[in-house]
Design goal:
With 147 residues, the chain is α+β, with helices and mostly antiparallel strands. The chain contains three helices and eleven strands; from the N terminus they run αββββαβββαββββ. The strands form four sheets. Strands 4-3-10-6-8 form a five-stranded mixed sheet, sandwiched between helices.
Length: 147
């Protein structure tokens, strides 16, 4: 709970929402091709528990859908596994078709300098084809749709 949160019930509701989203995502992965795992292996072969390193959740607005974004997947890839279509074309950070804005949270890039200006980066814009969630995110993607 952050310093600004004075309502413990609101915090519980956030946790419940995270849990519901994770359960829904796990069910989808089990029913599908199994490529979306919630545990990851370390270099020594040990398996990290999901509680030790939670997978960030990404909410897409105005669609109102949430998906898990493991660190090994770009936002575009993770959304597709969750049945959400984000705008795309080149998938390498140059065409800017996947440009969207991070409303809250933190993302990083898989390439050194994606096709964004310094001003766009400062305003929170990312290219979902080369961006990875570092924390829970809220993305503004008006063109997003369900697959």
């Amino acid at each position: 709970m952050s310093a600004g949160d004075s309502n413990p019930r609101a915090s519980d509701e956030k946790i419940d929402a995270r849990s519901d989203a994770r359960s829904e995502s796990a069910s989808r992965a089990d029913a599908g091709n199994g490529q979306c795992a919630t545990a990851s292996a370390t270099a020594s072969g040990a398996v990290d528990s999901p509680a030790a390193s939670p997978v960030p959740l990404v909410r897409v607005e105005p669609l109102g859908r949430t998906f898990e974004a493991p660190p090994e997947l770009t936002l575009l890839e993770a959304a597709a596994f969750a049945g959400i279509r984000l705008p795309r074309l080149c998938r390498n950070g140059t065409c800017r078709t996947c440009l969207c804005r991070v409303v809250s949270g933190e993302a990083s890039f898989t390439i050194e300098w994606p096709g964004l200006s310094r001003e766009e980066k400062a305003e929170g814009y990312v290219l979902s084809c080369v961006a990875v969630a570092r924390t829970d995110l809220v993305l503004d993607v008006p063109e997003a749709e369900l697959l």
